[in-house]
Design brief:
Shape of chain B: globular
Largest sheet of chain A: none
Oligomer: heterodimer
Helix content of chain A: over 70%
Strand content of chain A: under 5%
Number of helices of chain A: 13
Order of helices and strands of chain A: HHHHHHHHHHHHH
Structural class of chain B: mainly alpha
Shape of chain A: globular
Distance between the termini of chain A: 28 Å
Radius of gyration of chain A: 24 Å
Largest sheet of chain B: 2 strands, antiparallel
Strand content of chain B: under 5%
Number of helices of chain B: 14
Number of strands of chain A: 0
Helix content of chain B: over 70%
Order of helices and strands of chain B: HHEEHHHHHHHHHHHEEH
Number of strands of chain B: 4
Structural class of chain A: mainly alpha
Chain lengths: ~280, ~325
Amino acid sequence: MTRPIARPRLGRIAVHGALLFYTLVAIGPILLILVNAFKSRRAIFNEPLALPTAKTFSLIGFDKVLAKSDFGLYFLNSLTVTIGSVALVLAAGAMAAWALTEYRFRGNAFLGLYMAIGVMVPIRLGSVSILQLMVDLNLVNTLTALILVYTAQGLPLAIILLAEFIQQIPRDLRDAARCDGIGEYHIFWSVILPLLRPAVATVAVFTIVPIWNDLWFPLILAPGNGKQTITLGVQQFIGQYVIDWNAVIASLSLAIAPILVLYILFSRQLVRGLTAGAVK
Amino acid sequence: MGGDVSLAEQTASERRRPWSHILVFLAPAALIYTVFSIYPLLDTIRYALYTQDEHGVAHFAGLANFVDLFSLPVWADQFRNALVNNLIFFVIHVIVQNIIGIALAAMLSLPKLFGRNLYRTLIFLPTMLSVVIIGFVWQLILSPLWGVSEGFLKAIGLPQLFAPWLGQESTALVTISLISVWQFVGIPMMLIYAALLNIPEDLVDAATVDGANHLHVFFYVKLPLILPTIGLVAILTFVGNFNAFDLIYAVKGTLAGPNFASDILGTFFYRTFFGYQLQLGNPTMGAAVATMMFLIILIGVMIYLFGVQRRMQRYAL
């Protein structure tokens, strides 16, 4: 403990000043939109930086969005696609991660590398063929198409994160189970899966966010027929009602809200995942 | 999953086929991943070697698409423009994102910092939101119609700074790049922060005993040790930037205006594939553009894996 103990106080104040300033830069624009979503049109333009008061408070933007677009439906579509994909990624990913870390078999290393390609090479680049494939499978404008693509997209990272986690599970646990004559499926299901629970939250957050936020695949694979996800729905809505500021700001707020809630609930897992991944 | 199969039966079947459970565990992931990720990637590269005639029938054409892409002015000019813009987009990201990221991480990793978690959580918030939403948010804020940024600049005494940054040919790309930096600076911040926390105390203490002050410790002890992380951030950014699309599509539409000033490879790919206005989509040429993007990303990843990462690991050790 040879650090200088008398740290200059002034330095600390400057650090807090800088961090506070950047925090405002980071969340200011989002707050600005959220605040103005609850104001009348006149107040949005006259006092954009003010909080809504009793006089300027208005929900007209939300009324318009809900009346003029199928926001509830888009939200449900996004929810279906996200939950479906995450469930598949977690189930198939955990099984594959287990097989790749637990069993020594020929081609193990190759298969691990093969699955890792997807971390670096964006699946988007295959869009021409993916669209063709979905046309052939008759899946255009279905949520199934999105779920399949997002599952393929999410698997590589999920397998890497889960494999890292499985390696930390003490060997004794599985060996003890094997000595008792318990089958491999049973070990996975009743010994390993329950132990994976903490990792599942991290993997889920990393899988959910890119899926929920994606515009590309909804635009290409499911752009119409009431199959739009919320990101695409907002994009189309704003394209149509550019000049209606109340409606535009309200639709943005509605799109921000779910991720905001998710983030508040899971920011700990997310931070843990990000910082653990960097340690290597 | 075979939960009700009796144990004796299961082990017996495994003795006969010791591979069976491995196959069962691997099959779902390998199948979905192969069919919907690897196969389309390879098939896109194959498809880039075809051209479509007026009836929509594809014929093998060798490298004709690539020759057109590099030499026919219709394609080559746009391709070069998108490529150069994409490089600018990337360079702005790497420089600005890393400088802000390192500065924030250095401040956050100070011992006993009050409110550390709150700062970190709030600064990371924009990274979580959809690029499309962020694009619209900034489009509104920078819009001369609303006048929020104009009023803000006036309030802090710099009204002459205001300009329709997103609408001018000279500033659109830089503005969009900075919006994207603003959104994603949380990632370098977090990764560098974690790397800084991992630096052994002894190293810092030793340097302090030798008379190094805070700045010396940071630049001569800590910075070299976090270079591998900065390399990782750079390659993640590279891959992300060279298939970016959403932000520019949201802010500027398919035409990536004004006058293609904000066109990057992702938007060029989309236009080529689906067409725009009166121009019909061209899937085989789209596949050729995607193949070029694939090659560019591959080269970037290779440079990182074999050049940057190895050297840096040696350095770090």
